[in-house]
Amino acid sequence: MTQTLEALSRRDETLTSIRGIVHTMKTISAINAVPYERAARSIEAYHRTVRRGLQAFVARTGPIAMPAVEPAESIVVVFGSDHGLCGNYNELLAEKVQSELGPTTAGRAALRVLCVGAQMNDALAGQGLSPESVLLPPASADGIGRLAGSIVTRLDEIGGGEPHHRKVTLAFTQRAGRGQHEPVLMPLLPLGQAFLSELADRPWHSRSLPDYSMPSAELFAALLRSHIFASVFRASAEAMVTENAARLALMQQAEQSVDDRLDEVKGQLRTVRQDDITTELLDVIIGFEALRSSSRKPPPQLSSQDVPPDLKVRPQGRRSGAAALNERRCESRPGRRGGPG
Asked: If you average pLDDT over residues 294-320, what whole number do you get?
């Protein structure tokens, strides 16, 4: 179906506006990912310091024996997106949580879910999970600490101050190779035996032996809380980095699609405009040829029937009798003939 020049011009203007919006969103995503990535690197350095403190604690007191008790309840903290325009980011993570944690909690206490992001709440509800608390995601890198502190406080309230009586899992999306991202589930509490064994087997690289003056229980509780805070902070920062990366990739695809559509519309616009110009030129040429051919035609010949009676000329060979009589009278008068010889 051939479209008019006005319709194609409107489509071209609309697509140009959409491309500007998509380009702006792509730029914002690229800019926003930088401070979150810096926050993730910063908290990683802080987390290494905390693990170093735990290693010093283990080197001073010996291996840590965790109480062999079955966690009374299972808690999962899901870090999702609340800004949109990032594809199926939330849906993939919700499916991962349901497939990994749903069967393990069957027959036990209900899975308690803490959700970050309203859109993540909708994705979890679609999988049959009902979060008991929905937290707002950070609007900037400065808000990650506020969110991590709120989650740690909420976990303390749920566990009643006993970190080993609950199973806590962090669900977020992390970066994968070649610009991809994947949902992961990271166990947080109770501390795994592999983690404690690694701390005990790791050598202490210093001539000064570690020591502390505060009670060991209080020191371990403080180190454990810092470990939980750093883990939650890193999960939140990593989720924000991958969210902006997913949005950036989606905006790049959208920009490419808009560019392809713009090229197609511009091609149609040039074709229609050229057809209109060709039609107008042909109209001018046809009109000119018509005028030139009409100027070359001879004037129309009138028949004797078309001449009015009062303009008709009588033939000279046929004169009326009165005219002949008048001519003879003129010839008989003296002096009318030629003058004296």
From this structure: 59
Answer yes or no: is pLDDT of 341 > 50. no
* Residue carrying structure tokens 């005028």: 291
Q: Which amino acid is at 10?
A: R
pLDDT digits over 291-306, tens only?
Answer: 888 776 666 665 556 5
pLDDT score, position 322? 53
CB proximity list for 223: less than 8 A, separation 6 or greater: 50, 53, 54, 57
Please give the full DSSP string across 1-18, using - where no structure is assigned: -PPPHHHHHHHHHHHHHH
Kindly state whether residue 322 falls inside one of the protein's structural domains.
no
Q: How far is the C-alpha of 163 from the C-alpha of 66, rounded, in Å?
A: 11
Amino acid, single-letter form, for residue 11 = R
Please give the residue range of the domain that contains residue 54: 5-204+211-263
CATH of the domain at 102: 3.40.1380.10
Q: Does residue 330 fall inside a structural domain? A: no
Rounded to 10°, the helix 118-126/89-101 angle is 50
Q: What element of type H or E holds 188?
A: strand 181-189
Please give the Cα distance from 266 to 16 (Å, whole number).
11
Q: Which residue has the tokens 């002096």?
A: 335
Domains contained in the chain, number: 1
pTM of the predicted protein model: 0.73
Please report the pLDDT score of residue 84 as a whole number.
75
**Does 302 fall in a domain?**
no
